[in-house]
Amino acid sequence: MSPRLVITFIIIGGVLLGLYVMDSKRPKLKTVQQAIQNIVEFPDQNLLGGEKSPYLLQHADNPVHWYPWTEKAFAKAKAEDKPVFLSIGYSTCHWCHVMEHESFEDPKIAEIMNQYFVSIKVDREERPDLDNIYMKAVMSLTGSGGWPLSVFLTPDGKPFYGGTYFPPQSQWGMSGFKDLLLSVRDGWRDKREEVLRSSQLITDALQRGPSRQDTAGSLALNVETLSAAYRQHAQRFDPRHGGFGDAPKFPSSHNLSFLLRYWKRVPESRALDMVEKTLTEMANGGMYDQVGGGFHRYSTDARWHIPHFEKMLYDQAILTKTYLEAYQATKNEKYAQTAREVFEYVLRDMTDLQGGFYSAEDADSLPPEEFANMTPAGELSRAKSEGAFYLWGHEETIKHLGQELGQIFNYYYGIEPQGNALFDPHGEFKGKNILYVAHSLDETARKFKKAPQEIQKILYESKSKLFEIRQYRPRPHRDDKVLVDWNGLMISSLAFGSRVLNEPRYRQAAEKSAQFILSTLVTKDGSAKGGAGRLLHRYRDGEAGILGTLEDYAFFIHGLIDLYEATFTEEYLKEAKRWTEDMIRLFWDGQAGGFFFTATDAERLLFREKEIYDGALPSGNSIAALDLLRMGRLTLNRDWEKKAEQLFKAFSQQLASSTQSLIGLDFALGPTREIVITGEEGDPQTISMLRSLYDRFIPNKVVIFRPRSAAAAKAIIALAPFIEYQELLDDQTTAYICENYHCEFPTNDIKKFKELLDR
Fold it and tell me: pTM of the full predicted structure?
């Protein structure tokens, strides 16, 4: 008998002996063949190494025997009669890193997990459907949520206990993860009936939740709905620092875009004041990267001073749209400059060579001084810390900029010798400074007895120099997966920005991303689940995968509409029409109205989610409602507008807390304009009309271009039949401004065109 065979029998014998002495309630493996089969089918090892998710790959070397979310993981839990530990997070999540280092890298904790649980790791950005469901479960159990999300499930996927971050050992009244694991093990072994009953009660409550709405109790929706929402925002507004509520403060850009529309409708000056105060304070605060552009995730304090330093693609997309709208409304150049800087950050640091936009950058990085302290063996004495890439010392800036310019820079940006972080719970900012606008340009000019223009030049040159120096620091981890939904939002903002700022590069970047999605993230044969022509969710490292959710369809359609209006390329309107038809076919709830989060043929989970609440991201239903309204107006499809009405009715009781949906409702209530321009795209008259149009804040509109000749206009007329007879007047570029398809007399006079827009 070979030594390898002897070892194999010893292992099998050990497995059988272990199974024999385990809890008597657990089903025993009857035969050696079953034991061998179990070893082959369910290997005791970490299985994340073959995944594409950067988050899962970060955990591929843990001693925990992680499984990705697969049927095999649950089959193992059933075969071995073990509960499932589900851990959900994402690669740029600070506390996910902390829990990994403290618990998942600890061999003793890993041993408990491997012996008593089947452990599954999920990237919430890859599988938002799973995150939505189990986040709701944890919030129902604890009243709060967040990441890392830690949930204990039965082998059939039903949650029975959960939370977020747990320290490795119990402290300050907070359960330690090790103690929690052992407690859950004991409960599963000794109180199985109670655990199963609890899991069923939680599941039943989730399945009866508010997303399964009753349209019979729908509320009337009208302008008063918008007014009530405005009053709620006014009550929560922080007049001193801007934003809503107290710390922590999130950008909540869709709240500001809603207030801009309310100001336009009423008009209500305070609505605009709230928007301006918030946008100004955010752009001046530490939440904004003053050196490199781009917004951090949120502010941990009420003053927008101390951020959580991760940067998310969707924040850049949504915020630039609001800053551009505010620029249209106020002509404040600061808002346009902020949008430009954010776009430059995205195009410089967050764009794949193929055109897709990356997902996020981490908050944590190695402190720059680490390299000076590196040992001969290349070892580092400290771990990564939050914000290290972005922080500056007082003497550091003086050293790089010189005494005079350094003092000016430090005064303007609030840099102090002892550091300027008033709130530092983890001691990571000691002696360091977070740049924020501490003094105005005029204050700085008076203090240093220079003209404001000279101060501005000094600040610009100083920032440029520090940016170059910062480039040599260890960068934060970048999550380089490309997500269709987030890319859709970025396409929308870049396309819109290309018109408002008259910058072709933004349009080109938006087009490249859209073309990348259409060529790479659409199934082309029946090999993928769902067959040919399905939109996929994620691309990374040469692989596209995961069936798209409602957000992928709705956000991509949103981007395609804006891209059509930025380019007047019929292909983008045609694609928007195609995906709108598919979105309705795959996600629409024919009984109650509204869209489900997952498609009809998606993996069956505890329930089929249907959500209207806008969090950091607007909900799929909120954006889909606006898509239906805009596409209905562009293509003369009244059925799509009726579906939007049904969606609002279905969610009417929740609409007040969904400001992105209120933006759609504002569009639906009207007045809404259909603006048709007939002529040649490069004609000076056409260019002048478009610049006049996008110089103004006119949110509730669609724009369509009809080439002058019938032959050239054939493709667009097929998509938008109502423009067939809107021809040139006196052989010059002509504008038709319509409301609900009733058009004013056409004009080719720029002055008259502006008057009609301003009416």
Answer: 0.92
Instruction: Tell me the two tokens of residue 678.
Output: 């007939």
For residue 156, give the nearest of 119, 196, 114, 183 by alpha carbon.
196
Query: May I ask the CATH architecture of the domain 479-669?
Result: Alpha/alpha barrel (1.50)
Give the closest residue to 282 by CA, choosing from 331, 312, 314, 244: 244
Amino acid at 463: K
In this structure, are residues 394 and 388 in contact, taking their beta carbons and an 8 Å threshold? no
Strand, helix or coil for residue 36:
helix
Q: How many CB atoms lie within 10 A of CB 433?
A: 24
Q: Model confidence over 537-588: pLDDT tens digits?
A: 999 999 999 999 999 999 999 999 999 999 999 999 999 999 999 999 999 9
Q: How far apart are CA 40 and CA 651, in angstroms?
A: 49
**Do the domains 671-759 and 479-669 match in fold?**
no
**Alpha-helical regions (H) of 379-503:** 394-401, 403-412, 441-448, 452-470, 484-500
In degrees, rounded to 5, the angle at the alpha carbon of residue 305 between the alpha carbons of residues 303 and 308 is: 115
Kindly report the CATH number that applies to the domain delimited by 671-759.
Answer: 3.40.30.10
Q: What is the pLDDT of residues 6-28, one digit of tens each?
A: 333 333 333 333 333 334 344 44
Which is nearest to 398 in space by CA: 415, 419, 374, 383?
415
Residue 89, both tokens: 């997070």
Give CA separation, 527 vs 146, 516, 531, 599, in Å: 36, 20, 6, 17
Chain mean pLDDT for the chain? 91
**Any idea where the domains of the chain sit in the sequence?**
42-207, 230-478, 479-669, 671-759
| 670-717 pLDDT tens trace | 999 999 999 998 899 999 999 999 999 999 999 999 998 888 899 999
Give the CATH architecture of domain 42-207. 3-Layer(aba) Sandwich (3.40)
Among candidate residues 387, 437, 450, the one with its CA nearest the CA of residue 410:
437
